[in-house]
Write a structure and sequence with these properties.
Layout (H helix, E strand, L loop, with lengths): L2 E6 L7 H14 L3 E5 L2 H7 L2 E4 L26 H13 L5 E5 L1 H12 L4 E5 L15 H22 L2 E6 L6 H9 L4 E3 L7 H14 L5 E6 L5 H12 L3 E5 L11 H19 L5 E6 L2 E6 H6 L6 H10 L2
Parallel strand pairs: 1-2, 1-4, 4-5, 5-10, 6-8, 6-9, 7-8
Antiparallel strand pairs: 2-3, 10-11
This protein binds adenosine-5'-diphosphate (ADP) and 6-O-phosphono-beta-D-fructofuranose (F6P).
Length: about 325
Amino acid sequence: MKTIGVLTSGGDSPGMNAAVRAVVRSASARGIKCMGIYRGYKGLIEGNIKELTATSVCDIIQKGGTVLYSSRCPEFKTEEGMKIAIDNCKKFGIEGIVVLGGDGSFRGATDLSARGIPCVGVPCTIDNDIASTEYTIGFDTALNTACELIDKLRDTIGSHDRCSVIEVMGRNCGDIALEIGIATGATATIVPEEPFDFNTDVLQRISSAKKAGKNHFIIVVAEGVGGVYEMAKEIESKMNIVSRATIIGHIQRGGSPSVKDRVTASLLGNRAVELLAKGISNRVVGMNNNEVIDTDIFEAFKMQKAFRTDLYELSKVLNL
Ligand code: ADP
Ligand code: F6P
């Protein structure tokens, strides 16, 4: 393979730039040219493609967001859009593509592979919702951001004997909420993977914590459950505790990537190029027990994401 492309697609995540750098440098070390495709699949359709060199990716490992920009591109799902994308690959000499993104982006990658452009996916999303890997690039940074923000909220609720009901991101996956619940000592953690009863799992837990001497309360709610404003109102009216709702939102997606995200991005970006260089495609790279793995992309789609029941149960034991 003489030339590969790299693109970032779907929601950006901290560490995407470190992964772009790893792809470009790994390719360069193997004598493979690397083309940067801007704004995900949109750039492939529009021909927004420029060469990236080992030196052009200097000074990006520490940057949040994506220097290649990202987009959601419905046109790519159409036969017409796909045809233009393939024509552009030919025009720019792109023989394989490393796709940095989530599940949706990987589905696009299989469409390209099926039409003769081998692709390998690198899981980049703060949600940690890709079943074939224990870890997705950006998750750790998002956790640290959310934790820092909730620590700040704790200062103010602690000063006023209040309750803070906080929504964290994650789409349909409760992993961010789960880890944040543990890390911030939330009185209750609510995730989409586990059914919950508001009386037992929230009101009664607040009541027990109050009896134990606690005077401020953090309730962490995953985005996939939602309803934080209603919950705060209910808590205030039923428990007589002033309650405020906060949706942290997109702040969780920004910021300089943590060491874990930079290192994981470097490892996974490198493996993706290694695979393409060997002529292997339709794989999703990932981590399992701290080792780099790669999985057949169609197998990956069929996998069921494992839920950390141990963390969920632990938060109930440790957190008042
Ligand atoms: P993520 O990769 O974060 O899951 P999206 O689901 O928004 O993000 O997908 C990103 C892009 O991938 C979409 O805008 C579209 O261009 C492409 N894509 C998503 N699903 C498909 C699909 N089923 N077939 C082809 N392309 C897809
Ligand atoms: O997938 C990352 C994520 O930030 C999710 O946590 C969230 O549900 C979604 O993207 C938000 O999407 P948008 O950027 O389109 O608002």
